[in-house]
Give the backbone structure.
Amino acid sequence: MERKSSYREARDIMGLNFIGREEISCIDKQFPLTTPSILPEIPFSVETLKESSEDYILICGAENADPKHPLDIFFMRDFFGMNPDVSEPCFYNQDWYLSEEFVRTPLDMKWYLIKKHAIESTRSELPESILKRNIRFPSAIVCAYTFFVYYFVRKEYLWYHDFVWCSDSDHNNDRIYVGKYNDVDNINKNGFSIHRHLSLRPCYGAINIK
């Protein structure tokens, strides 16, 4: 049976890809968060962390320092805003998802091991096909939380030009994808984007023109 990693071991193994209590407490002015007095156990083995140390982030989940507001996408969107001319990083200016359940799902206070870059072999592949390859998608809140925390701690944007699939769906069961902070064509403004992959339904059809 593989031995679970201790906090100190995990920090030593992951290096700059480790985000624990100390890192989170250092960004309280940019992103006011709180962690429990007793952190949850790191569920990953020493071997798993060694295999993941270069291209994954080990990050501890946190809560909003303001107990009146859960740490969810709805709160984060309001907190960071949607105008890069005012402050960055921010969310991309869109509102289609405000009534969706997944934006009201708070972050679980546990450890996450999340990949820093899109897997090259999954580019242009539909999510249903990717999932058959034993790849697990993170939730949208985990992606958003990791994106902003990692930026403030390491001053580096994750998924800068890439969208990443999420485990969430909207009310029509359309898959959510997030990321792509910067538009490589410089048409759209900067912002952490949240979109849905529209599946074909009977309401989609064609018309003819003569």
